[in-house]
Amino acid sequence: MKCHECRYLMFDYIDKKLSEPVIGEMEKHMEECPSCAERMAKLNRQQEEEKPSGLFWYLLMPSGGFKRFFFVGAIFTFILVLALISFQLKKPLFRLF
Does an H or E element contain 22, and which? Predict the structure, then answer.
């Protein structure tokens, strides 16, 4: 495993979202690479110090993936529904300007 691959997977490693073979490769790489090991230690320290919580962080945290797309899609759908209702009523539901 190369450094850029290891660094890309660090958040998933911390969140325990990786398979056993990938975890083994990462741990082997970190034993051989002090730079990546230090970066992982730094991320672990930050994780312990700053334990974020709440719906906003849950949806937008670095390994958000599908949740992020779902959240953005839900907001877009909500805005579209409001626009369609406004169009059907032939008057604005709210004024922005």
Answer: helix 20-32
40, burial (CB in 10 Å: exposed 0-12, middle 13-18, buried 19+): buried
CA angle 19, 23, 27 (to 5 degrees): 175
Say if CB 30 and CB 37 are below 8 A apart.
Answer: yes
Contacts of 7 (CB under 8 A, 6+ apart): 36, 39
| 24 and 6 within one domain | yes
Do 4 and 40 share a domain, yes or no? yes
Q: Beta-carbon neighbour count of residue 65 at 10 Å?
A: 11
pLDDT tens-digit series, residues 62-72: 555 666 677 77
Can you give the pTM of this predicted structure? 0.49
Cα radius of gyration rounded to whole Å, the chain: 21
Q: What is the DSSP letter of 93?
A: S
